[in-house]
Design brief:
alpha+beta, Nucleotidyltransferase, domain 5, six-stranded mixed sheet, globular, Transposase IS701-like DDE domain-containing protein
């Protein structure tokens, strides 16, 4: 990928920055997939896909992307065509994301670049062990949205994020900004270890309360819960 040299240059500049510069130059890797509608009788790999934004099925291509972001720049670091299951070269989207993270780590090692405090962001579709472990092995900090079924130890119980939120709603909340407060609790995930769960409480314009949160563990795992 032609953007690799730019990515390494950004990592190098981030590593030489002071605390203020690192805050401005935070490097993020955003993993997601996107769909592109295409028409034509003689185009290979066109597949029937559900487009959530259009709320209908389309014929086209599905790509798995890793985008790099720093300051006011955002550019593709990896761009892989997902192929349907009947194709001999089929890989799941999670397999593609994992393989691209492994390849990126290998290239960083060859160039002598560490990830620094690079963050890995994804939605719940990529919050699976194979992808998260690849990101951890690459030394990335991880921000993601796990499924509601993911359980962590809180006290003597194994609870889902929403169950943990239900346990702490009666505690005193810390002020963050107008209409926003937060709580931090420490839990333990059976794979990712000690995790600090940060719960946000927001008062919406209609007066309703919405709870959401982030968690962080010693190994650099961050996860985002709505």
């Amino acid at each position: 990928m032609l953007t690799r040299p730019l990515f390494f240059r950004i990592l190098g500049r981030f590593g030489l920055s002071d605390a203020c510069g690192k805050s401005r130059r935070r490097v993020r890797l955003i993993t997601d997939d996107t769909k592109s509608e295409k028409f034509g009788k003689h185009m290979e790999f066109i597949h029937k896909l559900y487009n959530h934004s259009k709320k209908r099925y389309i014929m086209g291509y599905n790509y798995v992307l890793i985008l790099a972001s720093s300051e006011d720049m955002i550019f593709p670091l990896s761009f892989v065509l997902w192929l349907p299951e009947e194709h001999p070269g089929y890989r799941s989207k999670n397999d593609i994301a994992r393989d691209e993270l492994i390849r990126l780590k290998s290239e960083c090692d060859k160039k002598g670049f560490g990830p620094g405090e690079t963050e890995f962001l994804s939605d719940s579709a990529y919050c699976v062990q194979k992808v998260i472990k690849a990101a951890q092995n690459a030394g990335l900090r991880i921000i993601t949205k796990p499924a509601d079924t993911h359980k962590s130890e809180y006290g003597s119980e194994k609870l889902t994020p929403k169950e943990i939120i239900g346990k702490i709603t009666g505690l005193q909340w810390k002020y963050l900004c107008p209409r926003h407060c937060y709580q931090r609790v420490r839990v333990r995930h059976h794979v990712y270890g000690s995790v600090v769960l940060t719960i946000r409480r927001r008062r919406l314009k209609n007066g309703k309360i919405r709870l959401s949160g982030n968690s962080c563990c010693k190994s650099g795992f961050l996860n985002n819960i709505n």
